[in-house]
Specification:
Elements (H helix, E strand, L loop, with lengths): L12 H16 L8 E4 L6 H12 L6 E5 L4 E5 L5 H10 L5 E3 L1 H4 L6 H28 L4 H22 L1 H12 L6 H20 L7 H23 L4 H8 L3 E6 L12 E6 L8 E4 L8 E6 L2 E4 L1 H4 L5 E3 L4 E2 L4 E2 L4 E7 L5 H17 L4 H28 L2 H14 L3 H20 L2 E3 L4 H5 L4 E5 H5 E7 L10 H9 L4 H9 L9 E6 L3 E6 L2 E6 L8 H4 L4 E7 L5 E9 L3 H10 L3 E5 L4 H11 L3 E3 L4 H13 L4 E4 L6 H6 L2 E5 L4 H6 L2 E3 L6 H35 L5 H20 L4
Helix pairs in contact: 1-5, 1-6, 5-6, 5-9, 6-8, 6-9, 7-8, 8-9, 8-14, 9-15, 9-27, 10-12, 13-14, 13-15, 14-26, 14-27, 15-26, 15-27, 18-19, 26-27
């Protein structure tokens, strides 16, 4: 007696594999649960980073768990009752930059279901193809009558569910194209699969000598491989606009004055509210370390503002009542109260997001060479197959023969080689560039990169590392270095952190009553004397001394003259080589930065870049890229900050370093996986070679069709021979693409 509870084993492997794989793909698409806080980690890059971040966060009281996603450079923290402001300082203390992301803005992000779905269908088609080919060997070896029919029927039992399942991407696309009244590449593909299968079933039912189940499944397998290669060149890209939206601070601390008449701001009750609920005129409190949630004017408090993400300025800006702030900037040292002037969709960050969305849509209208070729190729395939069918029916009156020949024409002209022409080259070029430190994210990036004649560089974080360092500790007497180290360690200012790193070999002195003076610096008491580290005007430095070019902090001991400490931003490795090679290649080079004119001019002179612009805001960068495009230039933008995202999206092609902000990396077509900038020059050369290979592959496809189509129309090619010829053309195209790897 059969046990009805036992698992059923089908005679057809595909019948078992297809539903199982389908369930696995659906289960894999389930998104991970969203934690209370999601933080972006732009500088995380390896397994050690994962361990460091998770260990540090799990040690914070109130954190129940932390999980790092290194691919997305994010950490999800399960911490009820805690905010990003409670967690970010912990990560900064161990050397990791972190930014809060809005979980609601990221909730629509789905897993790569399509990629897993294609891989699963490739596996099923490949497994079925091998089994059918084994069965076909018996037929080719001379099996006759009942034995041949049995092998054909077994092949049919494997092939029919395999093609029905594995061919769904082509069938669905073809149906959608026909409903829209157009012919895409998937229409002839679907027709070829259906005709080859239908003819094979008919021949098997009539005890015919030939069945083409192996040809149909082989055709499906190669086409799926091409579809997956194309998918992988695009799969990494995500919406930069969504990333920018996630960067917006989701909550703000609203001040509600008490009912007592004349209540001061200090007495106002605090309430944490969604940023979307803020209105012009609202008062909000911004604590040190927090990002500004809306545009507005400071009404109380002093601090320093880090504008590097929005403007590229390397040094913080002193903040005092009356200063206008923009959403996305970071409050560094002191609490502020700000009156909101614009929030939500009206903020400067939201306007920047809209710019990126518009630029992405415009660039998305660029069609690849394969798509353009397919528009002309697909109607021609159908016309040739239809003409072959009509001609053979008219000449012989044999409907069975005419259908066989029409199917052979469809298969032999199937745009498999055409479909592989671009993704095969893109995959080979991606591998070559990845080994050199560049990751390609967009399928049309290589074609656009090959057209570049103008390269625009951002300054801070792109041509430079964006991290100040102490030029020399010599101005500091040895006896005062431990004091300066102790003061520097107590401050969050970028120059203080750089000083602390430079003096890390020293043993910090014992200081007392250290205080942070927002917008000015730090002070403390050492051996009964006041010591200060901060701005020139706060330490009583003369205007002439303070006006000297370069980045500097000042250190003083009561009763002694202040000491100037020089800081510099180091060049990114490979920057000189990259600029020199691009100049030798005839590229027009431009440097754009929101930094001070003196700093930008100094860097431009160092690298030999003749054209540069300083003090430019994000909108200005995007407008300049647009103006260059209007002049006919094909611009490559290389940038790393939030202030570069609109320019990156609007440029003809774009590259960001791996250390860039998430939004900048997403807006770009390529990402530098290391610190070295020299692969940018390699990318232009590889892109030109890749475009040449793509055109060669098109030529191979055309020559193949010129030779093979007449053979099929003349009736000398069965559907099986047509499938073998089609496979040979696909392999030839792939081998030609692999020449790029050398």
């Amino acid at each position: 007696m059969t046990d009805l509870g036992a698992p059923r084993i089908s005679a057809c492997p595909a019948c078992d594999a297809a539903p199982l794989a389908q369930r696995m793909a659906e289960q894999g698409a389930v998104t991970a649960p969203v934690g209370d806080v999601i933080l972006s980690l732009p500088t995380a890059h390896c397994a050690v980073c994962i361990t460091d971040v998770e260990r540090a966060l799990n040690a914070v009281p109130g954190v129940r768990g932390a999980r790092v996603n290194l691919t997305l450079r994010r950490v999800t923290v399960d911490a009820p009752g805690l905010t990003a402001g409670d967690l970010i300082p912990t990560l900064e203390r161990i050397g990791y930059e972190a930014h809060e992301l809005d979980p609601e803005a990221l909730s629509s992000t789905t897993a790569d279901r399509q990629g897993r779905d294609l891989l699963m269908r490739i596996g099923i088609a490949g497994f079925a193809m091998m089994n059918i080919m084994i069965l076909s060997v018996a037929v080719w070896s001379g099996a006759e009558t009942a034995t041949r029919d049995m092998f054909h029927w077994i092949s049919a039992a494997i092939a029919l569910p395999t093609i029905a399942f594995a061919g769904q991407p082509f069938f669905a696309s073809a149906l959608a194209a026909l409903k829209a009244g157009r012919l895409g590449m998937d229409v002839p593909i679907s027709l070829a699969l259906v005709l080859a299968t239908a003819i094979s079933v008919y021949e098997t039912s009539q005890s015919g000598h030939h069945a083409y189940f192996d040809a149909a499944v082989m055709l499906c397998f190669f086409l799926l491989v091409g579809r997956y290669l194309d998918h992988r060149t695009r799969a990494i890209a995500r919406s930069a606009a969504a990333e920018l939206t996630a960067l917006e601070v989701p909550r703000a601390t609203l001040l509600r004055p008490s009912a007592v008449t004349g209540a001061s701001i200090a007495d106002a009750a605090e309430e944490v509210v969604p940023v979307a609920s803020l209105a012009a005129g609202d008062l909000i409190r911004i604590r040190p370390g927090n990002r500004i949630p809306a545009d507005g004017e400071i009404v109380a408090g002093r601090s320093e503002i880090d504008r590097a993400l929005l403007t590229g300025e390397t040094l913080p800006v002193a903040a005092a009542p009356g200063l206008m702030l923009s959403a996305g900037e970071v409050n560094l040292t002191g609490p502020l109260v700000m009156r909101v002037t614009a929030a939500g969709r009206d903020s400067s960050l939201a306007r920047l997001t809209a710019l990126v969305e518009a630029a992405e849509s415009a660039r998305g209208r660029y069609t690849s060479l394969a798509e353009r070729a397919a528009r002309a190729y697909s109607p021609l395939v159908h016309l040739m197959a239809l003409a072959s069918f009509a001609g053979w029916v008219w000449a012989t009156g044999d409907l069975r023969l005419a259908v066989n020949i029409a199917a052979a024409v469809l298969i032999i002209t199937c745009p498999c080689a055409l479909g592989l022409a671009v993704p095969a080259v893109a995959t080979a070029a991606s591998g070559r560039l990845f080994r050199r430190g560049l990751l390609i994210k967009d399928g049309t990036a290589l074609e656009r990169l090959a057209q570049i004649d103008t390269v625009v560089f951002d300054k801070t974080g792109t041509l430079t590392m964006g991290r100040p360092w102490l030029v020399s500790a010599d101005p500091l007497p040895a006896s005062l270095r431990p004091v300066a180290l102790a003061l520097a360690r107590g401050s969050a200012h970028p120059l203080s952190r750089a000083l602390a790193e430079a003096l890390s070999a020293e043993t910090a002195a014992v200081i007392e009553d250290q205080q942070e003076h927002p917008g000015r610096g730090s002070s403390a008491c050492w051996q009964g004397r006041e010591v200060r580290l901060g701005r020139a005007d706060w330490l009583g430095v003369t205007d002439d001394e303070a006006a000297r070019p370069g980045s500097a902090a000042w250190f003083s001991v009561a009763g002694e003259a202040p000491i100037r400490l020089e800081f510099a931003d180091s060049l990114r490795p490979g920057a000189r080589e990259c600029v020199a090679r691009l100049r030798a290649d005839g590229q027009r080079l431009i440097l754009l930065s929101g930094d001070r004119p003196a700093a930008v001019a100094e860097l431009a002179a160092t690298l030999g870049i003749e054209q540069f612009h300083a003090g430019i805001d994000p909108m200005g960068k995007a407008d300049l890229i647009e103006a260059l495009a209007a002049e006919g230039a094909h611009v490559l933008m290389v940038g790393d900050g939030l202030n570069d995202t609109a320019a990156l999206a609007r440029a003809h092609a774009s590259i960001s370093p791996a250390s860039a902000l998430d939004a900048a990396r997403v807006a770009s077509d390529m990402v530098l996986t290391g610190q070295d900038l020299s692969p940018v020059a390699d990318a232009l050369l590889t892109a030109r070679r890749a475009t040449a290979r793509i055109r060669e592959n098109f030529a191979i496809s055309i020559i193949y069709n010129i030779v093979a189509v007449p053979v099929a129309i003349a009736g000398f090619a069965t559907p099986l021979i047509a499938a073998l010829a089609m496979s040979a053309s696909s392999i030839t195209v792939t081998l030609n693409a692999l020449r790029l790897r050398r």
